[in-house]
Write a structure and sequence with these properties.
Elements lengths: L5 H10 L13 H5 L3 H4 L3 H14 L5 E2 L6 H5 L3 E5 L2 E6 L6 H6 L10 H14 L5 E6 L1 H9 L1 H10 L1 H25 L3 E5 L8 H7 L1 H11 L5 E6 L8 H5 L5 E4 L5 H7 L5 E6 L1 H6 L3 H15 L5 E5 L9 H16 L1
Parallel strand pairs: 1-4, 4-5, 5-6, 6-7, 7-8, 8-9
Antiparallel strand pairs: 2-3
Helix pairs in contact: 4-7, 7-10, 8-9, 8-10, 9-10, 10-12, 16-17
């Protein structure tokens, strides 16, 4: 593994006149490996090889592991729906009342598929040496929402907040230990997805998400390991102050919001990434529409030195590589013109 000063890396990224893109690009490696999604999520060697193939194919600012938001909930015992060629999803509600929340056990690191994902990072750090490697994890409120059910937790925040906080405490304890395991495996940071928090009101986000994310950041982040916080909700702008208060190393936003508006509000010394539509443009578009959307975003936001272009969220598994290549080519041409 290659040890890096990640605070210096962020500063270099901000100061670079020619910037590299940093999309959440992992699952499209299935077409390079010629395997279905179900094979990718169950084998650490395959995951590391997929990351290596992507790193060899595109000049991204960092390598990002799978953004599989079912892994942590599965460790807690949630029911996972597996399909051959789709990213796994969680179905059903595990916890219905405070007694069940109290009885919920914090799982061991390495349980279910978490050990596979940690081992994949360990293997990737041995073969990808030219850029930082980020592990993908879920955020605490989004994990709690998978245990309580996404629609139910919205009502629970009002009707049974103590239960929600109890689940959040246990989710946070697990995520801290999970992050430590990734850190020990050689990751240079975590790309933490907290999308369900983006559905909350600003006051609820400040109560049920930000304090728990901040606890994780304070437990894990240092000179050699940073947290990149991802939120693709459309309420992000109204909760931006709270989100920034968590102290993440960098922030990543989805395409539900206007990125230029975000950049006007983000402090100049903080990296913000986003937000080409991963499904509508990168996956379902054409090389021409990808070039157009990428150029338009760069024209709006490249004037901010702390802007790094990315996908708005995880790029879907079956995204055509000609579209992904058009994205990277457009970024390279824009900054080198």
């Amino acid at each position: 593994m290659t040890k890096r000063n990640m605070k210096n890396w962020l500063e270099d990224l901000r100061n670079a006149p020619v910037k590299k893109a940093l999309p959440i690009l992992s699952f499209p490696c299935i077409s390079l490996l010629n395997i279905p999604v179900c094979d990718l999520i169950s084998n650490s060697e395959t995951q590391a090889k997929g990351m290596q193939l992507i790193a060899e194919k595109v000049s991204s600012a960092a390598s990002v592991s799978l953004m599989d938001l079912s892994v942590e909930a599965e460790c807690f015992g949630a029911n996972v729906r597996f399909q051959q060629n789709e990213v796994p999803t969680i179905s059903g509600r595990m916890i219905c009342d405070e007694d069940e929340a109290e009885a919920l056990e914090v799982p061991a690191i390495g349980s279910a598929r978490s050990g596979i994902y940690i081992d994949a990072i360990r293997k990737a750090t041995e073969i990808i040496l030219d850029r930082p490697i980020f592990a993908g994890t879920i955020g605490p409120f989004s994990l709690a929402a998978r245990l309580l059910d996404i629609s139910e937790i919205m009502m629970d925040c009002y009707d049974d907040p103590d239960m929600v906080h109890k689940v959040l405490e246990k989710a946070t304890d697990f995520l801290i230990e999970y992050g430590k395991a990734y850190k020990e495996a050689g990751a240079h940071g975590i790309m933490m997805a907290e999308p369900v928090a983006g559905l909350l009101s600003p006051s609820l986000e400040a109560e049920f998400s930000a304090p728990y994310v901040k606890k994780i950041v304070e437990a894990l982040q240092d000179d050699s390991f940073i947290i990149v916080y991802h939120n693709c909700g459309d309420n992000v702008l109204s909760m931006l102050d709270s989100i920034l208060s968590i102290g993440a190393g960098a922030y990543h936003f989805g395409n539900a919001i206007d990125m230029e508006t975000v950049m006007r509000k983000i402090p100049a010394d903080i990296i913000a990434m986003g937000n080409v539509d991963p499904a509508g443009i990168l996956c379902c578009g054409t090389p021409e529409s990808v070039r157009k959307a990428t150029t338009e975003l760069l024209e709006k936001c490249s004037k901010y030195p702390n802007f790094v272009i990315s996908s708005g969220c995880d790029i879907p598994p079956h995204t055509p590589w000609e579209n992904i290549e058009a994205f990277f080519e457009t970024v390279n041409e824009f900054y080198n013109k």
